[in-house]
Design goal:
Helix content is about 40%, strand content about 25%. The chain is of the alpha+beta class.
Length: about 110
């Protein structure tokens, strides 16, 4: 169960030349979670890149596909909830905050 995303990624591993065949098979047989990928190449759920089963990990882009990571799904559910949309609608943008800051500075300078 998951959802479709335009960019997905998977934690891949870099095999050393002396990696035993049994360890290679364990990695290939593992059920790894597919994450939704941000534009910077990291997963939406902020899962850190780390060693996996003693091997060096790398994020591998898969393109469009089904996301199976529960933490990524939770982020999407929160973003799509009516409460977060309402909060985002009432939240000032960066430009609006900057204009208010500059106006406050000018007012303080004139006093």
């Amino acid at each position: 169960m998951g959802y479709q995303a335009s960019q997905t990624c998977l934690l891949g591993v870099v095999f050393e030349p002396d990696t035993p065949a049994l360890k290679r098979q364990q990695v290939e047989d593992a059920d790894l979670r597919v994450h939704e990928m941000r534009s910077d190449g990291t997963p939406l759920c902020n899962t850190p890149l780390r060693r996996w089963k003693g091997l060096v990990g790398v994020w591998t882009s898969l393109g469009a596909g089904t996301v199976t990571c529960e933490r990524c799904m939770q982020h999407v559910d929160e973003d799509r909830s009516p409460r977060s949309r309402r909060a985002a609608k009432n939240r000032p943008t960066w430009a609006e905050k900057e204009l208010a800051r500059n106006a406050a500075k000018r007012a303080a300078a004139q006093s």
